[in-house]
Amino acid sequence: MEVMKRLLPALLLVPVLLVAGHAAAAVAPAPGKSSPAAASTVTTGSGSRAGFSVGAAVRSIRPRSQAQATHVGGYGDCLGCQHGTTRVRAHDDLDARALYVRGQGRAVVLASVPLEGWFAGYQQGHRLGLTELRQEAAAQLSSLPGSVPVTAADIIVNSNHCHACPTVVGLWANTNTAYLRLVYDQTLAAIVAAARASQPATLRWATGDIGYVNDVTVGQSNANEGWPIDGQLSVLQARAKGRTVATWVSVPAHGNIGYGPDLPEMNSEHFGAAARWLEAHQGGVGIVVPGTLGDQTTPMQGDDRRLPKDPRPAPAARQGNGRGYPEAYDVFDRLGALVGATAVEALQHHGHGMVSGKVAGAESYQLVASDNPLLLGLMYGHALPPEIPLVTHDGAVAGNVTADRAIVPPYLTGGAVGVWFTTLRIGDVAVASEPGEAFPHVTEAIRDVLKGAASTFVVGNAQDQLGYYFEEWAHPQTLYYSADHYLYNLGPTLAQQNIQAQVLNGHALGFAVDETAASLTAAAGNDHLRYLKKAGIQVWAYPQGLRDPLKGWQIPLGIYWNHARGSEYGVPGAEVPSGRPVVTFDGRPVVVNGDDTQFATVVVRCAGDYRLHASLPGTTATWDAVVHVRSGQDVTNTVTYPSGTGEHPLAAQNAHDGVRRTC
Question: What pTM value is reported for the model?
Fold first, then answer.
């Protein structure tokens, strides 16, 4: 969740009882659009040796009438008010997407929706939350002709935590229950349709490095500069009869690269753009979900500014207010293409066929004690009668600034929140849920726990939306970065309980586990004072697809920089740039004339590898990358991370420098 842009509510606190709980159990009881046609595919090598049955489906969750109009998530349109700007129009279809995988006697499901968040249960009633959705989906899947047993523990559903897409959690605006019902029904329909569409298929998996798209050195309000990042992009692809059934990708990059309230239409952001890119280039259904979310912010904040020279038309809703394509939409498309191209390259160069045919799910239900009376007040406050209004720090009525999450067992007991931690086994890999915005060190520990898996993929905001969470050792350090990390933090034990739940799940799934794995090693890699002393610069290339027949392919570069934050507070030695960045592409200078962000364009005539270098005059900030141009549109990057930013081991794995250029 993002910083509340207009004010931070200081709500009347509701007395709560703190109840600690760590017991694991099974799932606790809870009180049309068809798939895209297959297109031509990029060859990704041989398939798995183990047989599977795989299906995928897509259903639109776009509001169908004004009665289902909703708000965008993460900022709100009128924080502290009883009304706001609701939207029906969407830039894309806002699809619920589902992947069904059947193996040796079991089946599992991975489903995703473009929402800011989705709670496990709701105060507004039944058949609205994720827990009941998974239980109902499991019952329907188990009753299909020729089916295998499926339980709620075999299903992971996540929300993509995009901030230009709809919100159904309260906090920033009232939830439209009619719209939430549509989301529930359409996601359920997508899951069942995916199972009905399943067919014999092979599976391949791969990992790639894309951590550099996060603000590794460039500061933002929700980024802890100098802390290690999670760079692992995870890919799972199913193919049948020579065609792609589905490509599922987990990308460790936060949404919020466009300022939702300033955009004319709702948008699924780079997650939806990447899914569409994969469908266009690989065929089948594309499903792109967030991996690690906490402290993984992309250094972009596109808005409704026009790109007047772009031939694409402006959205119909704003044709009268200027010509051209909004900058934010362009950023969504570019980053989506980069995610898709990186996933394809990972499959091409590092793809693995599944050896094991095992498919299963395991789940641990735990009570997590909360020490955040404000967050609990947001949940309990939703149920208060109108004559007892909650108020903000300046006395304004904040009747809509509450959280809709259910406040009865198993969802909430006093001050203890019921949480479901789920892990799926798909052949040789594990897929672990993170019920919010876990920090990278939590993901690192989960991967260390599940050491018997060939690889561990994580899905952020899965099974619930419980805000940021990090290990107890990180609490003091996060204070001086962002109060937002504490405002939306359930409690100090959530991270460790997530890690320990993976021990239980790993045993149940037959993986070798390391019960002593912890995230403490990540603390040693933190450059805790970097943001005070060091300036930052980052540059990378995006796919574009616009070609001048005489000059060649146009490749956009995103260039981002800033001075050290400490310079604002008079910290001695804090770096302030003495000029704009000096950037070269293949040794050729790139013109830079912006203030802290710029898109430049370079022309590439030949496929191959190109060196990108940048420095910031008057500072120690530098940036180096190799840009891989595989075809006209397939562009990926390998970045040499600056010291102290936690270089991801995949960066070395994905280096393909030295490929011969061909025109």
Answer: 0.89
Helix runs in 34-109, H state only: none
The 10 Å Cβ neighbour count of residue 613 is 17
List, in sequence order, the alpha helices (H) in 400-519. 440-449, 475-478, 484-487, 494-509
Which strands form 635-640's sheet, in the order they lie side by side? 588-590, 582-585, 608-615, 622-629, 635-640
| pLDDT, tens digit, 9 for 90 and up, residues 1-37 | 443 333 333 333 332 222 233 333 333 433 333 333 3
| Cβ neighbour number for residue 653 with a 10 Å cutoff | 14
pLDDT class of 485 with cuts at 50, 70, 90: confident
- 3 state SS for 548-562: ECCCEEEEEEEEEEE
Cβ atoms of 441 and 516 within 8 Å: the answer is no
Q: Which of 493, 501, 503 is nearest to 368 (CA)?
A: 493
Query: Which run of H or of E encompasses 188?
Result: helix 177-196
3-state secondary structure string across 276-303? HHHHHHHCCEEEEEECCCCCCCCCCCEC
> Per this entry, what is the length of the chain?
663
Q: What are the CA-CA distances from residue 20 to residues 377, 397, 475, 592, 609 (Å)?
A: 18, 33, 19, 55, 54
Burial of 454 by CB count in 10 Å (0-12 exposed, 13-18 middle, 19+ buried)?
middle
Q: Based on the number of CB atoms within 10 Å of its own CB, is 499 exposed (0-12), middle (13-18) or buried (19 or more)?
A: buried
H/E segment holding residue 571: none
- The CA distance from 615 to 235, in Å, is 33
Q: Decide: 327 and 303 in contact? Cβ < 8 Å.
A: yes
Rounded distance between C-alpha atoms, residue 381 and residue 401, angstroms: 9
The residue written with tokens 């937002």 in the block is 484
The SS3 assignment for 209 reads strand
Looking at the DSSP bridge assignments, the partners of residue 539 are: 559
